[in-house]
């Protein structure tokens, strides 16, 4: 398992960004790491940007990730990965859903959605893992578990045992939501 990391979760309100970061933080604490987490809701209730910063290691003094120091950006909406890219360190990894949520300003024709953002990051040499987490979640029967697909991908990349996250899903989620979240975690872990 990776001994320390700075992980930036980014998305749009309602995508489960905070739930995923809370679950990861609980797992890291169980593994004995010092964990600090900071969340910014912004205009989350209106579909606005949401970010959560998770830092873990032997000793962590601050929950905040400075620009150029994130080991990972976990993006629940693909344009958010581009918006936060300046926080990624040179050899960092972007794990992004290929899902688009077009803001009101784009739908009204006042702004343009940044097409090709994933491809652009790859062309610039960034290490990007992209998956249509929303479609994968829909195949499992619940679009809201896309966050667990991405968390599963991150857990695998960190070298975290999947069983720990499975156990925490069973502990923290209502029984009616456990099975679909477990399947989503399995799927992400296998990608």
Structure characteristics:
globular, alpha/beta, 6 strands, Pyruvate-ferredoxin Oxidoreductase, domain 3, 8 helices, six-stranded mixed sheet, 191 residues
Task: Write up what this structure looks like.
- The chain is α/β, with parallel strands linked by helices.
- It has a domain at 5-134: Pyruvate-ferredoxin oxidoreductase, PFOR, domain III (Pyruvate-ferredoxin Oxidoreductase, domain 3).
- The chain is built from eight helices and six strands.
- Helix 7 (162-172) runs antiparallel to helix 8 (175-190).
Tell me which CATH architecture of the domain at 5-134 applies here: 3-Layer(aba) Sandwich
Q: Uncertain spans, ≥5 residues at pLDDT below 50?
A: none
CATH class of the domain at 5-134: Alpha Beta
Helical fraction equals 40-55%
- Taken as a percent bin, the fraction of beta residues is 15-25%
Structural class: alpha/beta
Radius of gyration: 16 Å
- Give the spatial strand order of the biggest sheet: 2-3-1-4-5-6
The N- and C-terminal alpha carbons lie at a distance of: 18 Å
| Tertiary shape | globular
CATH superfamily of the domain at 5-134: Pyruvate-ferredoxin oxidoreductase, PFOR, domain III
Largest pleated sheet = 6 strands, mixed
Mean pLDDT: 92
Order of helices and strands: EHEEEHEHHEHHHH
Strand count: 6
CATH topology of the domain at 5-134: Pyruvate-ferredoxin Oxidoreductase, domain 3
Q: Can you count the helices?
A: 8
